[in-house]
Amino acid sequence: MEYKTTDLCDACDEAQACELPFMGFGRKRAFAGTIRTARYSLGLNVLRELINQPGHDQVLVIDGAEAGWRALFGDIMAGLAARNGWAGVIVNGPIRDRVEIDGMDVGVKALGTVPRRAHIGSRGELDVPVHFGGVTFTPGARVVADEDGVIVLPPGLNESSIKVDDAIAATARYVAG
């Protein structure tokens, strides 16, 4: 990926930076795409349905706030995400199966790892706006993730429509004194 979250934030004040300390998993440490969402609500059956669909380079954002400290995503789902063409996965909560996921051609951002999985149970919610880390992740918006964090771009913008050259030059001038 050629665009950095830091440069995009410097060049676009309207970019929303998520305030959570995400960790990166999988071989893709940077990814971007159109947001699809799944919210854990006493179960994540909706996630199983969604991850089995073609991803079309979209990013799946999973809000697991209601799951407590239980894994919402593991190696089987990561394998499906990679195979079905998802650009990446962002999890507001922990994942499991870190070693296996780190060997896969997938990008995952999560808050850590834990061995116990979340309850599979009920359906959950699909394609609803979810809010965490000071950012609202709206289905259809554009999200960019790398080792520095996760940002949501303003409506109608994508990475290539934000001119980062001036921001990079301004930083270089500032550092040079």
How is the secondary structure organized here?
Layout lengths: L4 H7 L4 E2 L5 E3 L5 E9 L5 H7 L7 E5 L11 H9 L4 E5 L5 H5 L5 E3 L14 E2 L3 E3 L2 E3 L4 E5 L2 E4 L12 H12 L1
Helix pairs in contact: 1-5
How would you describe the overall organization of this protein?
With 177 residues, the chain is of the alpha/beta class. 23% of the residues lie in helices and 25% in strands. The protein has five helices and eleven strands. Strands 1, 2, 3, 4, 5, 6, 7, 10 and 11 form a nine-stranded mixed sheet that branches. The protein has a two-stranded antiparallel sheet with strand order 8-9. The longest helix has 12 residues, at 165-176. The two termini are 30 Å apart. Substrate binds at residues 74-77, 96. Its cofactor is Mg(2+); a divalent metal cation. It catalyses: oxaloacetate + H(+) = pyruvate + CO2; 4-hydroxy-4-methyl-2-oxoglutarate = 2 pyruvate.
**Class inferred from helices and paired strands:** alpha/beta
Q: Which architecture per CATH?
A: 3-Layer(bba) Sandwich
Characterize the overall form.
globular
Query: What is the CATH homology-level superfamily?
Result: Ribonuclease E inhibitor RraA/RraA-like
CATH topology category name: Glucose Oxidase, domain 1
Q: What is the helix/strand order?
A: HEEEHEHEHEEEEEEH
Measured between the Cα atoms of the first and last residue, the distance is 30 Å
By DSSP, the count of extended strands is 11
Beta strand %: 15-25%
Helix content: 10-25%
Low-confidence stretches: none
Q: Kindly provide the name of the CATH class.
A: Alpha Beta
Provide a count of the helices.
5
